[in-house]
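Subject: for your reference before the review

Hello V.,

The reviewers asked for a structural picture of the protein, and I figured it would be easier to keep everything in one thread rather than splitting it across files. Below is the amino acid sequence we used in the manuscript, unchanged from the supplementary table.
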Amino acid sequence: MKNKGLLLLVLVSLSFSLPPDSEISKALEKDPLFEKQMLFEGGRFPNVVVAKNGTVVTTWGKENCVSRRSVDGGATWQSEVNIGSGINGGGLTVDENSGQLITFVEKGEHPPAPILSYFSSDQGQSWQAKKIKIHPDNNGNLPSMHMNEHGITLKNGIHKGRLVRTSRYYGKGNEREYWPSHYTNAIYSDNGGKTWHTSNPFPANGTGEAAIVELSDGSLYYNSRRHLSTDGLNPRMRHIASSSDGGQNWENLYVSKELPDGEQNRDYGLMAGLDRLPFDGHDILIFSNIDSYSGRKNGTVWLSFDGGKSWPLKKVIEEGGFKYSSLAVGRKNTPSEGYIYLLYETGTKNDIHAYGGGIIARFNLSWLMKDKKISEFLK
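And here is what came back from the structure prediction:
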């Protein structure tokens, strides 16, 4: 009887601690799904996140920042909610400690401009402006928020619970003559977004508009656009760095050989989407940008199975106009589970280069991996 009881205990333990690969296998058993719909008419500047309860929340806007949300995993979307007048500054962040959402709006035609922060305690149904404090970087420069991928809450290490979002320094303005003095960075908060500290600069000037994820070892993977090369590095591919101290310093700079930074016939780059799929024990990342020699078109997503070291799989999402984009992944045990969300700027029917509004695409891993075996990529 004692041996039977021990065997039963082992079996029960195994049933509640499935190996990480079984989570991936379960995701791949689902029918492939890809669908998209227009979410915003006109305007620019996308961000998308998934709140703690699984509500999918988007922000958008060039002159007025608005939000739309879905409570059924992205099948239907509620009407627009006004956040505030100004440009969407990106960095929409889910505070995993409190469940609050935090976003940033910049007043003016184009940053650098005064910054307002808005908080939502009801998964994007309403937003309230709150006064925050942002401390300058070690050069004495205050950052701009515009226009970056969503923020994150750290889940590992001594900085667990810290909020981190990418930001940038514009110098004296956005004119090309000032680009050599631009650099990307990040801001981080240890008190729920009331006070923010600015990281040291990213180790390359001429950069701006970035994205960040935390890997399973607690390090941060930082992926940046580059408008202008000041050091001979290729500005047409994404610039990568990492942090081992919770986003205070950036090191190990290199240029990706696989991820393009915008159209490949000019040095200018493009804001990109980035997120980490929620599979414990695996650093599977997803990245969005264009795969185009000329023109902002042919929107594509790439998958990495080793924390961004390589990107062996890619798939076209949108053959037409595709510009700024943002990515988010669903949460376990919510209506969003198993879905990946991509909000992107599109063209118009007659002109892919025009700004035709924002499309939300919803798809799953089995669609991305169709006709592929996961064993080809997981080592």
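For the response letter, the relevant points are probably these. The chain is about 5% helix and 40% strand. The mean pLDDT is 93.

Happy to draft the paragraph if you're swamped.

O.
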